Amino acid sequence: MARIAVVDDSPGTRAFILAALAKGGHEARELEPTCLFEVFKALHEDPPDLLITDLVMPDCPGHTLIRLCREDAHLRDVRILLLTAHGDAALGLFLQQMGGTHYLAKPVSPTMLAECVDQVLAPGTEPDPGWSLACRGTIAVVDDSHLSRAFHAAVLRKAGFRPVPIEPGGLLETVVAIEAEQPDLLVVDYLMTEFNGDALIRAIRAREALQGVPVLVVTAHRADEIQTLLVPLGGVEVLFKPVRPDDLVEAVRSGLLQG
């Protein structure tokens, strides 16, 4: 049976995690993070198989605790599950640099937490720290603007989706790249250098594997013209720039439900 340590400055959250793990057949010990070095000492003296930790803790910052573990010979290979409501692209990059570290976004159900712990502990599991293990869907983001791709990806990643930014080349090349990812939804710009969004949508509708994928077109183009071009294609929603993060997330969630 795996040995699990739980570090969180909220007694209620620690109790929730311990109960969820017990329900999933795991045993765990809790460490109250009143002092970073006391927590680190306890982990060093009795290394767990898995460390579940919060990120924002006044007396034991999660970033620092993870870094200390990775720099310690006894804790270097311990698997870590960061359970937090705070997440962005910078955090994803940090976790990627730390290695063996997974990220799970709060709020999370007891069942989902137990299932994710099983996944993290499974032999050969590779972390994908850029998105939550409780992934809400894979979203392909096609835009010829690097900044737009990065913005959309960061917003979706923070909301628990797995974004796949795709830089559009030729039309066929782009369709093949999308098909390889098997996305649950496609976010696409309309005016792009090599082709327009409606041409891409027609091309993916011609591929059996992509025919049912819902599409969200994000554009600054004129509303009346866009609607006339896209409505006949079916399964296409439109979001007009400038886009607020909350609007993008809500449009993606709505598209997934309708798809």
TrEMBL record:
<feature type="domain" description="Response regulatory">
    <location>
        <begin position="138"/>
        <end position="256"/>
    </location>
</feature>
<keyword id="KW-0597">Phosphoprotein</keyword>
<dbReference type="InterPro" id="IPR050595">
    <property type="entry name" value="Bact_response_regulator"/>
</dbReference>
<dbReference type="InterPro" id="IPR001789">
    <property type="entry name" value="Sig_transdc_resp-reg_receiver"/>
</dbReference>
<feature type="domain" description="Response regulatory">
    <location>
        <begin position="3"/>
        <end position="121"/>
    </location>
</feature>
<dbReference type="InterPro" id="IPR011006">
    <property type="entry name" value="CheY-like_superfamily"/>
</dbReference>
<dbReference type="GO" id="GO:0000160">
    <property type="term" value="P:phosphorelay signal transduction system"/>
</dbReference>
<feature type="modified residue" description="4-aspartylphosphate">
    <location>
        <position position="54"/>
    </location>
</feature>
<feature type="modified residue" description="4-aspartylphosphate">
    <location>
        <position position="189"/>
    </location>
</feature>
<protein>
    <recommendedName>
        <fullName>Response regulatory domain-containing protein</fullName>
    </recommendedName>
</protein>
<dbReference type="Pfam" id="PF00072">
    <property type="entry name" value="Response_reg"/>
</dbReference>
